[in-house]
Design a protein that fits this description.
alpha+beta, 5-stranded antiparallel beta sheet, 2 helices
């Protein structure tokens, strides 16, 4: 889990020009078919960029980046739940 977190922090740091994440939120996301807990990590940097990753294969669930006006837009097509994602596999 720590390796995943370091990778995610590195991704956010490289994706921005202002340093590491200001905020990291860890929360449950769902369970796999065999009952294994999947968590979601949300990292937010000082400029408002958000990265959401789940521990189900270290999947990038969403990436919100600000446009010139500062409005955030999700540039990743991800699923809102494990059940929806499994239905489309």
């Amino acid at each position: 889990m720590n390796r995943l977190f370091l990778s995610l922090s590195g991704l956010l740091m490289l994706s921005t020009f202002s340093g590491a994440a200001d905020e990291v939120v860890r929360e449950p996301f769902g369970k796999t078919k065999d009952g294994k807990q999947v968590e979601r990590f949300t990292l937010v940097n000082p400029k408002g960029m958000k990265v959401r990753l789940i521990t189900f294969g270290a999947t990038l669930q969403s990436l919100e980046v600000p446009d010139k006006a500062g409005k955030l837009a999700d540039v990743i097509v991800g699923f809102d739940s494990l059940e929806i994602g499994r239905a489309h596999v």
